[in-house]
DNA sequence: ACCATGTACCTTGCATCGCATGGAACCAGG
DNA sequence: CCTGGTTCCATGCGATGCAAGGTACATGGT
């Protein structure tokens, strides 16, 4: 079903999300409580972290199991009630912990990816996609 | 070693490595063939990506199974022979693919971690009594 | 010769995670 | 009643990081 090339890109991106998704979801709740589909849409809009319900809901269950979030039901004017997820004290601490270690990690990967050898490499511009 | 806090930090960092380690190892082979312990030491020196043999060797087996690397044995003047891992054509392509998607991913995480609506956010120290 | 140490390679078993798939419940409009 | 949109959740599979354990080679001490 896959033409092949898109598989590789999807594969690389898929493996990347592991572990990071958890903290990005926590980061989304930092300002205010969010509900499942809202988180899903926010991740989708980011582009690189788009995922599915089958990923987000088990993740939210784990966060609740580990006491990183609490939930409250709230009625919706259009549709079934929504379960809003809010950060607990532990959740906020975990998020700050991640915020602390992330730059070092990011920098390490950047260091590995930048080769110190070929100054004239015909690299397409790092101007970046949207 | 840092006391106490390093546990949480290690936990967050451990989740982070998932999926990225594979491509960092490929990146290390970009310039010249490397052998297992050499890769292990390079990762350890990076700090954030330190891992163990139990992680690297199964990873290298997978890379070989997927034809991303080839290996050649080489004698060592001090110790057992070393198996050197070198990038194949597919391996180099996978590395470039990852190099393409990584900036977008990194940028997305950075965006989530920086709160977009509180310009005057008090960067209070951890343990704030709120 | 024997054994301890350092180097280097590899396997097994466990826990975790992303994700495709499928299903359930609620509301509005025809 | 029935179709469509929204929201929630669970199950099963494949892949991954990692601790623990095992094998083999070389050197030096006794």
From TrEMBL, chains A, B:
Q: Name one Pfam family in it.
A: PadR
Question: Which SUPFAM superfamilies does the UniProt record give?
Answer: Winged helix' DNA-binding domain
Residues covered by the Transcription regulator PadR N-terminal domain: 25-97
Which CDD domains does this UniProt record tie to the protein?
A: HTH_ARSR
Coiled-coil-forming residues are: none
Q: What is this protein called?
A: PadR family transcriptional regulator
């Amino acid at each position: 079903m896959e033409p092949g090339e898109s598989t590789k890109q999807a594969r690389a991106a898929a493996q990347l999300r592991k572990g990071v998704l958890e903290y990005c979801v926590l980061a989304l709740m930092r300002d205010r409580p969010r509900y499942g589909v809202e988180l899903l849409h926010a991740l989708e809009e980011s582009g690189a972290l788009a995922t599915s319900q089958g990923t987000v809901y088990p993740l939210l269950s784990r966060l609740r199991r580990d006491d990183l979030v609490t939930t409250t039901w709230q009625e919706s004017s259009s549709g079934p009630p929504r379960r809003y997820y809010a950060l607990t004290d532990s959740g906020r601490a975990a998020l700050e912990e991640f915020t602390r270690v992330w730059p070092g990690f990011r920098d390490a990967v950047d260091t590995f990816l930048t080769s110190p050898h070929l100054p004239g490499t015909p690299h397409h511009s790092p101007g970046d996609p949207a």
